[in-house]
Amino acid sequence: MKVKILLVEDDTSLGFIISDQLKSDGYKVTLCTDGAEGFKRFNEEEFHMCIFDVMMPKKDGFTLASDIRKINNHIPILFLTAKSNDEDKVQGFKSGGDDYLTKPFNVEELQLRVAALLRRVNITLDAKDESSYQIGEYTFDTVNFQLKHDNFEKSLTKKEAQILKILCKFMNQVVARDIVLTGVWGQDDYFVGRSLDVFITKLRKYLKEDEKIQIANVHGIGFKLEVEA
Known about the structure:
The chain is α/β, with parallel strands linked by helices. Helix content is 42%, strand content 24%.
């Protein structure tokens, strides 16, 4: 299985150069050009490492890393930046970054830093299987978008599955509304917010076979998938 890297770089030329180099090293690379798109793709696929430019439109690299750390604490994050002062490095580490590479950099240094960070992934790569979740009496197949119960079976739409997967990652915890919105739609505004409410209503209907399950609204914050033991 190839290691999958999420690369988010708004300089298209540099992004293609880095992507091509990583691919030639045997990695599978997904390239995005802004932070919002990067966060959306992160929630659509499983990645083993992230490489983020810092200065990007829509969502900067530090904010992107901070949002990802809310749902994934172990994935290695490498920052690429033209800034080299200590204050920026400290901010990068505080936002959840694991390493920092200052532009311009040579290919060999990038290769070494990626390899070093991926040693951690080799330890945790199979530590947590997110291909399915047990939600009370339901089984949720995240790969095939199937939600199954002894009395019910439903093929979910892609967005229904993405929303439910995020809620499952935070099972019995509060997940912020903006995390769901930017993770699924790549943006947070009134119209997608209304769409989210519609999808939440549908998911509640699908999960009604088990009375110990509920998706609660947490006023002013977001949602909580509650599953009684």
